[in-house]
Each structure stands twice: as structure tokens, then as C-alpha cells.
# Entry
Amino acid sequence: MTTDELTDRGAGSALTEAKPILRVEDLKMYFPVKSSGLMRRTIGHVQAVDGVSFQVNAGASLGLVGESGCGKSTTGRLITRLYKPTGGSIDFDGRDIAKLSENDLHPLRRDVQMIFQDPYTSLNPRHTVGSIIGAPLAIHKVVPKNKILSRVQELLEVVGLNPEHYNRYPHEFSGGQRQRIGIARALTLQPKLLVADEPVSALDVSIQAQVINLLQDLQKEFGIAFLFIAHDLAVVRHFCPEIAVMYLGKIVEIADRDTLYQRPHHPYTQALLSAVPDVKQAKVGGRRERIRLEGDVPSPINPPSGCRFRTRCPIAQDICARVEPPLLQVGPTHKVACHFPGEMGKHPEKPITPRLLGVDDSGSADLAAGPATELPTGPGYSDTWFDLKNNTMGKA
Amino acid sequence: MSTATSSFLSVRDLKVHFPTADGIVKATDGLSFDLEKGKTLGIVGESGSGKSVSSSAILGLHRGSSAQISGEILLDGVDLLQVSDEEMRRRRGLDVSMIFQDPLSAMHPYYTVGNQLMEAYRVHNNVSKKAARVRAIEMLERVGIPQPDRRVDDYPHQFSGGMRQRAMIAMGLINNPGLLIADEPTTALDVTVQAQILDLLQDLQREFDSAIIIITHDLGVVAEMADDVLVMYAGKAVEYGPTKDILVRPEMPYTWGLLSSVPDVAADTSSKLVPIPGNPPSLLNPPTGCAFHPRCPHVAKVPGDLCRTVQPDLVTGRQGLGHLKRCHLADPDTVYANEVLPEFDPVLADELADELTAADSNEKGLQ
Ligand SMILES: Nc1ncnc2c1ncn2[C@@H]1O[C@H](COP(=O)(O)OP(=O)(O)OP(=O)(O)O)[C@@H](O)[C@H]1O
Ligand SMILES: Nc1ncnc2c1ncn2[C@@H]1O[C@H](COP(=O)(O)OP(=O)(O)O)[C@@H](O)[C@H]1O
Ligand code: SF4
Ligand code: SF4
Ligand SMILES: [Mg+2]
Ligand SMILES: [Mg+2]
# Structure
């Protein structure tokens, strides 16, 4: 057994055996598009999130990556219930919170907190740092009024700020310090899940590392689970043992970190990873070999039929336009949504999905292929999966 | 890099100081560098280190403001700081042009993309509107805008972020300028779009033999694009030289900090990031001595109180060949190989340590 396989097993069992705190199934968010003019009729929908399923284990971190506009922030805002989903379920700590009313959500707000991207606009400039961090304590009546200040000072210390500065205003702090204030505020109620939406991308590189280390320390100390959203692939890899890649509102690949970065099977993940500029290239000079994607991400109002990536996919065939590929489990902790999944340069010549979907190789309905197989579509991983070597459903 | 006189662009002791109510902001404070045709210089540094102020000075964008500017900016032998405002206007867009970080704010929202391209062309070329339109469409096609003959009539907001950035590049290059300055051209873009834009810049550079200055905080972009790198801190160059030397064997602690604070897509995930402690300095009251000393973990390795009291000169480093650094450390190679690199990249550290021992025994053998 190679060390690769060994680490795989390790990562795999950690991902499959822990207890989920969040289970999201078939989550959808469609924003109405209104016509201009007086009537403001609804003329279409932005399918910002269109049927995503994943789970986050207690104290674990799931990373969410993908190009601008693919639905990462919307997913985060659904989970914190800043939006009400169009469809699907959000099971938090054993309870579906997708349809709860604002009132019923109140206790939940303690357990799920969000850190925002922009440290400049996410803090109210007219409030002191002390009242920003202390507000949740007062609202949720967690500690008596006369204890709030000392708790605020404790929190300031935890995030590495001077506890004596509780009386200052946000503009008196640098970007990195403001992001720490946002983190302190999110920690106030000792949440079980933190949704961190691009928590470091507005910061200078030297300051990014400070904040990432802080988040990692806090996660260890308080056992907080993270949904970590970022477009920087190296940062996400550093922070999260498991990562999901989104494209146009859907998860196209999800896996443990080693599998996803070393053996991605989806052409989009492969293109995304190959596009990251590499400092080590300095030794060789010149540009790295990479997959060049043509064109721009299509509009989420009228996404392409079949596989949404097909308009830019270098290996697309007829079936890709006709049938949507299912998010199929192909390893212990690896799922991919592609008719031709495989390591870079080793994609199968024929689609692997027809027998599962009851179609022929070009994607047309095929009676001879028999009925479609009932495929698991829920979050998490099962102990049976589709074995790409033998093209059959198998077991470990 | 070569001698000052023969370079296409030669910047000598450039200073850009802004008088403000609180005192003088020394945004650029004695910067010198050279750039040849067909070559790319990468400028890196934290926000506020003076990257944009320095490059705006090359375009003469501080003219008419309160900025106090001194030094020389020689482009093809002509000092741009000495030419008249009218002459500078003539050269802007023709000899030197700039691509800005945020194309939405740099393009006018009320004019079509085509109109803005045509205007940029007609300012410098006495041609009919029709001919300018043909040229605009040609440039949009060149930068990879699909259906350029139709998209030419779109307004900037009808373009996606990547398309706007490409339209900006088209505008910057429409007169084939000898020098193109790209200020964080891809910072706001996704990696896939970034790769497209960087490809485009390189193709166009090859075609027109232009000199490019690329300003960025992404060392990966620098590694893949730049021939030379200039690292700026508090308005000054702290390390400067060929990209390979600077990124593989950096000799200045601030550069070390930049390298060790960003994770690598292939690095060991159990190793911690090594941040640069503290915050960037104020340019109103820069620290005494070495401006980096309040954040530098290596101050104790320098004898006496030198780091705090004496500003190090920008001098040739141990690798020679135009690798300049501004630091008092006597043996930076050893510190980097034994202390800094092992913390964030143990594999590279072993390689470098072997290289250094080999070089060492070679030297001894020669003696
Ligand atoms: N309130 C809204 N009304 C209408 N459309 C919206 C709304 N919020 C987001 N969208 C659209 O939904 C899609 C997904 O947006 P989202 O903000 O989730 O993207 P993202 O993946 O976070 O992108 P980025 O990396 O740029 O932050 C986009 O097409 C966006 O324009
Ligand atoms: N017009 C101005 N007046 C006063 N200070 C300025 C002006 N323009 C820039 N500065 C200051 O000069 C410094 C360098 O700015 P800049 O070159 O924009 O940094 P960057 O390296 O991020 O591009 C900053 O401290 C900035 O606040
Ligand atoms: S399903 Fe087809 S279009 Fe989609 S990623 Fe796979 S090969 Fe490409
Ligand atoms: S001169 Fe001193 S303070 Fe400055 S970088 Fe070198 S060791 Fe650090
Ligand atoms: Mg977002
Ligand atoms: Mg700038």
C-alpha cells in the first residue's frame, strides 16, 4: 500500500465516521428577475443555487470554491437563513431549518454565525467595538448586563486585539484588525457552525496569514464547524480537509482534499487547478502548462441544457447536451458530476453513465439500456460507490 | 538589467511626496529601476507601499496636483519629468499606457466600449470615424471578445468583469505603446479568467515587443510573468533583481515574509502559515533605520542597534549579478535556508541547504 492510499483512508474515515452537524439536501435558491418599467413582472429566474447537497461534520471544515457568481455566497446565506430557500432541506443539529419563520429561527441564530468578506462595510461605523461585539450577548440575554464588558474584553483578547480598545470605533482599526472584530462578534455566542464567506480575500497577503491562523486556532479550541467559502484555491486547501467545487449553482465535484487536488476527475476542477499561478515556477521560468478554458461563465438565468459546463468543456460530447450528469460517488470520499470522469488525460472514451440513466452513449432514451438505476442523491458518502475501473457499482 | 543609459525605460531616484495637513507622505522615496523592450518587470508589495503612485508618475498623472516629484524617468532617452504638459498628454496612450485595477471606474459608463476605443485611437491618429471603428473592432477581436462587430456597441456594464478587463487591455494597446503598465490587472478576476488575461498580455508583448510593468501582490503571477522583480516596502525598493534569484533565493526578510505567508497549492497542509507580524507602516512617520524593523523577526541577528538606527543601503547581494537588497544581515542565505524556509517548505529547504553546502565546498576547494 502506498502512503497515498494510507492518507486517503485516514482522511476518508474522518470524513465518513464523524457526526454531521449540518446536512443540506437538494437546496435551491431562485431569485426572480423583474422586467424594467412600472409593472415589474417576473420574466425569469436566476438559478443561483440549484440542487446542492452536502454535509459538514461537527468541528470539521468544508470548503466551497468556484468562479464568481457560481452561488457560493448564496449557499452561505441560505444556511445562515439570511435567505429563505426556494426548495430543499437544511438539517441543522437534527432539525430542518429551511422553512422556519423568523421567530422560530431566533434560538438558531446563536448556533450559526457568519463572517463576511468585507471588513470595511460589515461593521456599523457609528458603534464602538464593544457594543458591536456585545450586542449579541444583550439580545440573547446570555450574560447579565454588568458582565458584558468583561466578556467583550475576553473576546478581544482571544482574537488578538487589545482588550482596552473596546471603546474605539471601527475606522480606527486596520483592515486585518476589523476582520478580527468581525470574528470576535461571530464568536460571541459560541456558535457550533461558522459560515466564513471570503474571510481573508480583502486583506493584504501578510495579514491574511494572521487571520487564517487565528481561525484555525479558534476552531481547535472551541470545536467550531466551518463552511469556508473562498475563491483562493490554496487558502481553501490549507484550511479544509474536504472541499466542494461549484459551477453555475451546482456542485460538480466534492472530495477529501488530497483526492481533489491531486487526482481531480472533473474537467472543470482540473481547469481551475491548472489556472493557479505557481510561485515555484520561478525556478523554471515562463508560464505553467495549463488547460485553457474558452469564453465566460454562461448566465445562470438560462443555463445550458444537460451538463452546465459543456459550453466550455474541452471533452464534451453529444450526451453532455442532452442529459445532466448525476453527482456520482466514485471513491470512498469522492463524488463527481461528469459523464466522462477521470484523471487528467485519462478520461474514458465512452460515457460511464448511460446504463445508470437508461440512455445510450449519445444520451438519447434507450429502451434496451433498461430502466434508470435509483442513484443516491443525498449528502455525505455511502459505503458503496461506482467503481470506475470495472464500471459497476461496488463496495470497498 | 543593464546599465542605465542604454535601457528603454530608466527610472532614477524617483521621489513622489504629498504634502498633507499631517505632514509629508513620502509615497515613493528614491526608486530606481530599468526595463528593456520586450521584458516584464513585476512590482510587489503590500497595499500602501507606493506601487501605484510610482507607476502613475511614469504616466505623468500627478501633474497639476500638489505632489512634489523629483528624479528622472527616462523613456527612450527622454526625461518624462521634464517634458511639457502638452507633450506628456501626447505621449500618454501613445508611448506609455496603463491598465487599471478596476475597469468599471476607468471606463466611462455613458459611452459605448467602441466609442471609447475609437476616441483613444483618434486622439493619436488622424483618421476617419469609420477607420477608427474598424480598428476598435480589430482590437476587440485581438483580445478575444466574441462577436466584436456587435459587442463594440455595448456599454461597459453589459460586459462581464473579464470582458471589461480585456476591453481595457484593447484600449491600452490600440496605439501599440512601447511601455504598458498593468496595475493589479487580474486581482479582481477568477483564476481561469486571470489565466486568459495573462496569456493575452504575453502574446501581445511578443507581437509588439512592448515593455510591461505588472503590479501585483500575487507572487505566483510574478513568477510566471516577470523577468525582473522589484519588492517595495514603505516607498522604497527593498529587493530587486532577476525573478528567479529573488523568488528562489531571496535575501531580505520582508520578501521572506511575503513568500511564507501565502499557502501553496502543493504545500504540506499541516504546516502553519508564517504571517508577517504587525501592520504596514505609516508613510507619514516611517520607522527609523530599516523601515521594516518593527515587524522583522531577525533584528537580533544584526550587531548593535543598526536595524533601528541606520537605514541599510540598497546593495548587491551575495548572488551578485544585479540582485540588490536593502538589509543589514551578514549571512541571509544561511538564515533563509536554516530558519525561514523549513517553516513553510521543508522540501525546498533541504534542496537549498544541499546547494549551499555544495557551493561552500566548491569555494573552499578553490582556495
Ligand atoms: N439578491 C439577489 N437577487 C438576484 N440575483 C442574485 C442575488 N444574489 C445573488 N444573485 C445571483 O446569484 C448568482 C450567485 O451569486 P453568489 O453571490 O452566490 O455568487 P458567489 O459564488 O458568491 O460569487 P463571488 O465569488 O463573486 O462572491 C449570481 O448570478 C448573482 O448575480
Ligand atoms: N494624492 C495623495 N495624497 C496623499 N497621499 C497619497 C495620495 N495618493 C497616494 N497617497 C498615499 O501614498 C501611499 C502609496 O499609495 P499607493 O501607491 O496607491 O499604494 P499601492 O502600493 O497600494 O499602490 C499610501 O500611503 C497612500 O495613502
Ligand atoms: S459531463 Fe460532459 S460537458 Fe460536463 S464536464 Fe463531463 S465531459 Fe464535460
Ligand atoms: S535590516 Fe534589520 S530590520 Fe531590516 S530587514 Fe534586515 S534584519 Fe530586518
Ligand atoms: Mg460571494
Ligand atoms: Mg495600488
